[in-house]
């Protein structure tokens, strides 16, 4: 199991945002997390990558026990996750190449040739090799998200957490990004993606979990 939660509560400061969350995600799954604004999607994701502490229930993610997670283990946990955000979070003062180099160096890569080869490989996989020496502001939103996805792939993550990855994109670009994520999943990678883009979900049907009334349940999709 890549992710397993049992009776977990998600808390922001003293406020309980979600309770009684139990779910499991297997290797190779593509799972959507849906719910209205404020339903707790981001807080849920933050609990999974160690940005919010897990105070109640049991949670295991890519081999880490969330309840026992120590501050110093968080970087190790994040190395096994690929995290993609709505607002891309690229470093705007440096080129695509330097953005990706920064991530690899942070996890100990030193060999220049290996770094170059790995960057070429991930950029190729998102079809952005041509933008190696561009700055983020020279790219469209969809292109920036492709770079952010390439960055998430650098460490060969066991799980990709994508928090509203199409939230800042127009419908056409959203479909393109979704095609890319679906293709990454088809090659065997596990993805948990939060979204409130219902048309997108019906175009790309996958297992769907809904946050509502502080808890979670699986939604059975209607296929048309
Ligand atoms: N830093 C914070 N401190 C205290 N409460 C917070 C904090 N961030 C979020 N909350 C509260 O937690 C609840 C869930 O917010 P969250 O951002 O997780 O929802 P969301 O479903 O991701 O919404 P959105 O789609 O707007 O991002 C909200 O009631 C919000 O007010």
UniProtKB/TrEMBL annotation:
InterPro entries, per the entry: AAA+_ATPase (IPR003593), ABC_transporter-like_ATP-bd (IPR003439), ABC_transporter-like_CS (IPR017871), ABC_transpr_LolD-like (IPR015854), P-loop_NTPase (IPR027417)
Cited SMART domains: AAA
Keywords: ATP-binding, Cell cycle, Cell division, Nucleotide-binding
Gene Ontology MF term list: ATP binding; ATP hydrolysis activity; transmembrane transporter activity
ABC transporter domain span: 3-223
GO cellular component: plasma membrane
The protein, known as: Cell division ATP-binding protein
Domain of life: Eukaryota
Gene3D superfamilies: P-loop containing nucleotide triphosphate hydrolases (3.40.50.300)
């Amino acid at each position: 199991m890549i992710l397993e939660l049992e009776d977990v509560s998600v808390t922001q400061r003293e406020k309980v945002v979600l309770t009684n969350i139990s779910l499991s995600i297997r290797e190779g799954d593509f799972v959507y997390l849906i719910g209205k604004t404020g339903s707790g999607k981001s807080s849920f994701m933050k609990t999974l990558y160690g940005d919010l502490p897990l105070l109640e229930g049991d949670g295991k993610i890519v081999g880490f026990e969330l309840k026992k997670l120590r501050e110093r283990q968080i970087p190790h946990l994040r190395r096994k996750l690929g995290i993609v955000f709505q607002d891309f979070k690229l470093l705007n003062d440096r080129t695509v190449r330097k953005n990706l180099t920064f991530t690899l160096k942070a996890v100990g890569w030193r060999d220049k040739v290996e770094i170059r080869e790995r960057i070429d490989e991930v950029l190729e996989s998102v079809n952005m090799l041509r933008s190696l020496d561009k700055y983020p502001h020279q790219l469209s939103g969809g292109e920036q998200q492709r770079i952010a996805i390439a960055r998430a792939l650098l460490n060969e993550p066991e799980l990709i957490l994508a928090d509203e990855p199409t939230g800042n994109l127009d419908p056409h670009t959203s479909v393109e990004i979704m095609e890319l994520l679906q293709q990454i999943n088809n090659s065997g990678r596990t993805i948990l993606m939060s979204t409130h883009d219902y048309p997108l979900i019906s175009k790309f049907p996958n297992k769907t979990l809904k946050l509502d009334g502080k808890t979670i349940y699986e939604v059975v999709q209607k296929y048309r």
